[in-house]
Every structure is written in structure tokens, then in C-alpha cells.
Amino acid sequence: VGGRPESPLVGPETENGVAAMAACYQGFDPAAYLQYNYTPPRADFERKDSIVPWKLACLHRAFTEGDVNGDLLVDIGSGPTLYQVLSGCEVFKKVLLTDFLEVNRQELRGWLQDKGVSSLDWTPYLQHVCKLEGRRPSAWTEKAAKLRQVITDIVPVDVHRPQPLALDDLPSAGADCLVSCFCLESVSPDLAAFTRALGHIGRLLRPGGHLLLIGALGESYYFGGPGVKIPVVPLNEAQVCASLKESGYTLIRLEVYTLPQDMRVGVDDVSGVFFAKAIKE
Ligand SMILES: C[S@@+](CC[C@H](N)C(=O)[O-])C[C@H]1O[C@@H](n2cnc3c(N)ncnc32)[C@H](O)[C@@H]1O
Ligand SMILES: O=S(=O)(c1ccc2c(c1)CN[C@@H](CF)C2)N1CCSCC1
């Protein structure tokens, strides 16, 4: 994983762009990334206009409105975060986490295997999702146990490969649902590569399966650690919709959140966040 794409359709220019992106990620710092994006002011559960309640509510609704079901949920480009599967872990028997970097896979294993070892305390996220589910916040320990029970593995992934996962990491029937947050636009050298990557992960999904895609709007860079500036494909809503359509999905719903000024904290130049629920044709 992480090698050059195999597709004969991809020219040297794109291969060079993909390789350059992979090089940018060698300095990625999970603890710093979590600090930049998953602590206040961005992760402030007391603020009504905070992005956290909005995102967790989008995911909760998408997983629980009745059309998403099956056995296997795969999270593409998990990074060092878990918020993206806190609702899905109640709906799927198996959850597969994936990331390109061993440092991120190690961060996730630290949380899963040992109650104390992780760079961020996910308790407020667990408690918030319990509240969305109508449970008492103290049920967060049960949700943490559920998460540790359903996450079957944490494996390498490369969305620029036509087959992003190792064949033996995925059942032949494919995944029933994919979730992917802030990954494709943050790892692609350009819009064409973003769209191709959407098609590649679509091949992991059974026909009729759902994609829950969260991403940045208008973002051209972010810091993945101190001094680790990573380029991002700046997207607008129309491009997201067009790329989904071009790569074989039917859009069910697109929701957009505009970041308040005080959440623009210098770790990136994101202007908004989109949430797309789509179905693979
Ligand atoms: C901006 S982070 C998103 C992390 C997390 N999903 C979140 O919501 O914050 C982008 C992630 O993509 C991963 N990544 C980098 N290159 C990749 C590739 N070629 N294929 C899949 N994931 C990749 C990085 O290791 C990183 O964890
Ligand atoms: O939407 S966030 O503010 C957020 C969370 C992660 C990221 C960005 C924004 C923008 N840059 C991305 C680079 F890929 C990563 N957010 C942080 C608090 S919890 C919910 C998600």
C-alpha cells in the first residue's frame, strides 16, 4: 500500500502528483492533528453553532433513518479519529478502520486495545452521540465497549489504487456502507484524482450500498503537524455533486455547514464542510 497506482490509464503526471502527496504525509503528526481539529474551539459541545454537533447529527441521522443496513461498515482514511463511526457502530456488526499511515493505525489501536492510551479523550464525543440516541450520557462506557467489540481490524488503504484495500481485507460481497471524512480531497493532487479516488472506493461497496462522505469546501491546505503543510483540492458543492455522479453514485442528500469566523484558527483555510449521503448504482 502507498505504492504507485497500477492503472495503465493514469499518466506520469498524475503518478508524480500522487507520489508527491504521499511524501507530504510522511510528516503527519496524529496528536497535533487531533489537537488542531478535535479540541475547542472547533470541538466545543457547548456551542450551538459548533461544527461538532452538526457533523455528529448528520452522521447519526444518516445511519439511523432506516435505509442504511448490512453487516460491514468500512471507514476510508480514518486517520487518528473515531467520531465518524460512533453512530455506525450501533448499526453494523463489523466495522473496518483504514488508513494510509502506520502512525494513525497505531493511534487507533492504542485507543482500542488500552483504555488509557490515546492522544485525545473521546468521551465527550461518545457522550454526545449517546444523547443523540436518546440514551443517558453515562451510557458512553457501553458505547465505547460496543465500538471495541465491532471494530474487527485496522488496515492499510490507498485510495489512488484501483483496489484501495488488500483483497483479503474485504469480503467478496463488498462493504455494505462506506464512510469517509476529510480524506479524498486531502490526499488528491487535483479534482480528477479526487473523482478517480471516489470511483476506486466505490468498487469496495456492494451495489445499493451507501456512501457517507464528509469533506472540506474551499480548502487549499491544512497543517498535519507543526510545519507540515499539506495541499488540499479546493472543492465547491457543484464539484462534489458532479464527482459523485461521474463516479457512479446517486446523491440522496447534501448538507453544508459554513465555518464561523472564530473557528478559522489558522490550521487550514477551510470555509465550509459538506455532508453527502449517496448510494452506489
Ligand atoms: C485530513 S486526514 C482525515 C482524518 C479523519 N478521517 C478525520 O475525519 O479527521 C486525511 C487522512 O488520509 C490519509 N491518507 C493519506 N494518503 C492517503 C491515501 N493515498 N489513501 C487513503 N488515505 C490516505 C492520511 O493518513 C490521513 O489520516
Ligand atoms: O469540521 S471540522 O472543523 C474539521 C475536521 C477536520 C478537518 C477540517 C475540519 C478541515 N481540514 C481538514 C484537512 F483535511 C481536516 N471538525 C473539527 C471538530 S469535530 C468535527 C470536524
Quick description:
Helix content is about 35%, strand content about 20%.
Tell me what the structure shows:
The chain is an alpha/beta fold and 281 residues long. The protein is 33% helix and 22% strand. The protein is built from nine helices and nine strands. It has helices at residues 12-24, 30-37, 51-64, 102-113, 123-132, 140-150, 184-187, 191-202, 237-246; strands at 72-76, 94-99, 151-156, 175-181, 205-217, 221-223, 229-231, 249-258, 272-280. A seven-stranded mixed β-sheet has the order 3-2-1-4-5-9-8, sandwiched between helices. It has a two-stranded antiparallel sheet with strand order 6-7. Helix 3 packs across helix 5 (123-132). The chain is globular. It starts with 11 loop residues before the first helix and ends with a strand. The mean pLDDT is 94. The structure holds S-adenosylmethionine and the ligand O=S(=O)(c1ccc2c(c1)CN[C@@H](CF)C2)N1CCSCC1.
Describe the structure using short key phrases.
281 residues; alpha/beta; seven-stranded mixed sheet; two-stranded antiparallel sheet; 9 helices; 9 strands; 22% strand; binds S-adenosylmethionine; binds the ligand O=S(=O)(c1ccc2c(c1)CN[C@@H](CF)C2)N1CCSCC1
